[in-house]
Amino acid sequence: MTDPRARHAELIQAIEAHRAAYYERDSPTISDAEYDALERELRGIEAEHPELADPDSPSQTVGGAVATGFASVRHRERMMSLDNAFSIADVAAWEERVERAGGPREFVCEPKIDGLSISLTYEGGVLVRGVTRGDGTTGEDVTANVRTIAGLPGRLAGSGVPEVVEIRGEAYLPVAAFEELNERLVDEGKAPYANPRNTAAGSLRQKDAAVTATRPLAVTTYALGALEWGAAAPDPRAATQIGIYSVLKGWGLPVSDLAEVHTGVGEVEAYLARLEARRHSLVHEIDGAVIKVNDRDAQRELGSTSRAPRWAIAYKFPPEEVTTRLEDIRVDVGRTGRVTPYGVMTPVTVAGSTVTFATLHNAQEVARKGVLIGDTVVVRKAGDVIPEIVAPVVAARTGEERAWVMPTVCPSCGTALAQQKDGDVDLRCPNAEGCRGQIVDRIAFIGSRGALDVEVLGEKAAAALVDSGVLRNEGGLFDLSEDDLRRISLLTLEQDSKKDGVARTAGDVSTNGLRLLANLDAARSRPLWRVLVSLSIRHVGPTAARALATAFGSLDAIRAADPRTLASTDGVGPVIARSIAEWFGIPWHVEIVRRWALAGVRMKDDGGGAGDRVLAGLIIVVTGSLEGFSREEAAEAIASRGGRASSSVSAKTDFVVVGANAGSKAAKAEQFGVPLLDEDGFAALLAGGPGAVA
Ligand code: IVH
User: Fold this and answer.
1) Known catalytic residue: 112?
2) 639-675: per-residue pLDDT in tens?
3) What DSSP state is assigned to residue 472?
4) Domain 610-693 class?
5) Maximal CA-CA distance, the chain
6) Architecture of the domain delimited by 4-52
7) Closest ligand 1 atom to 312 CA
8) CB 646 within 8 A of CB 669
9) Which of 23, 82, 315, 316 to mutate to test the pocket of ligand 1 (most atoms within 8 A of CB)?
10) pTM score, two decimals?
């Protein structure tokens, strides 16, 4: 075991280095969650070895220092930090401590804004100073910058304004403004910022207030520091925490509209769950919630430790952004031959799942992100989206990192890569016929929901079918037999088994294999547009395929059509028309179609299916994320039933489907009186049309 004293010293050194990077250079070297873990470990050691705890330990101080370059200002009243809770059990334990100390069970719950704390001093109602937290006692004078914040009044409203008041709050950059700023930087060929918090911190600590003025910073206020009422009568509402927010609001200051009073741990827990579900639809980033004793007398009685009040606690959400090591950058070839780089990372848990790979899209993207192999990188997985490598942690470089070079040959078949057309960003493997990677991906794609939707036919089964030599390409897919599958260990039984009273021997086709055959059988009669999509013709996605199927009715007619006729079809156009003509010009493509047709795959729409067009003429908007559908799949489900999926809500919209973390569209729908549906309602609508959800 390591010597606790040595580990304690090591932790202090690490924490201080990380604090300096975060607070002074606005460029953190580890994720918030990892930092929290270091502080927790430090506290753990100090709890067991009290002799190691001293007033200078980071467990007793708040992070941050006063950078040179700004005048330092002493806060009239100290600015504190908050203790953290990482689970509901932690929150419950804190509430119990509060109650044991005689505190009441009434709490204010509110978002913990991921910005930077700021203290605003108003004298005679006039804003005279804005100061960063600094070390809690002394901060940096950023008054000139604070004055550029649009939502912050220079003069307090109302008549009962105190002589002197320090108002504490959080300065932040709204997520939308952050994204806009980054888009602009990228357009200008500059490096984007890593996250809104650091951008806000960097913006507020600009030497040139004119630069700060271009950043649409905002503030939410949530506490009072020093307060001298002077001639004004003390506002009685200041007797509770929630009352303070009314007072602040009355003065014209921005306060959170998500602060709520709750009694007991059960209610608090429900609030935390609700807030977390909305986490990504708020205007600013939040990293948790703050729970505060509502009664101010009780707050005073509970008091504070050297760094944090005992009457409040920060509940931290599980991290969505972590750092890990980028072990390697590799490339993969997809079904259309496009070769994409992806990062291989030291596995790391983010937002509840383990992440090892993340796409890097193309060589330009790797260059834009500026990541090197061996870098510590920030990985993000916000909500249920795909993991993303956000940026390298440049400050953590050791000099051992190396630049990645885009390979010149296909990783699967070794063919020299090329641009398909001049001006293409992507490099492709031109060997579509023989490249194993492309063949496997094309076959797996046929099984995907957007194509023929063949359960069991995924990446693994596709690879097994090709690697066993059973399939040379997708041409033979619908001719597969049990005999074929017996040659594939993945789809056969490893040992004797008995299912539904039937004895089966090792080597027989497994249940999965049998399901694959049954599913392929069913897939033969899917609508023509899905068959078209399954052929992996470049640019022919669901929308174009549906337009083609509707206009021409059969694959033969599409093949025979003159490119000009194709191009003038609504929803098709010249690029797609050319792509189709080129595709049918290649003999092995025609052979695939011939074999599929022989195997009974549907090659023409028989005009039926009108009963399926339950959404004919309806305009439907889907907002937020649904569990059972990606955005594209939802749009397809709507279109295939004759409806139109739109992205903006207007008075013409018939339904708005609201998924998790929906943004402003739901509110807009209510404004127009458009009916809202949840995911179950959406399913009912798809199945039975508007009558089913009336
Ligand atoms: S109250 C005396 N309320 O979180 C208590 N802080 O991790 C002062 N923060 O330093 C803090 N949102 O910068 C409070 N609603 C909120 C907050 C909040 C964000 C920040 C604040 C504090 C840090 C502690």
Assistant:
1) yes
2) 778 788 888 888 889 999 998 887 788 888 888 889 9
3) S
4) alpha beta
5) 95
6) Orthogonal Bundle (1.10)
7) 5
8) no
9) 82
10) 0.58
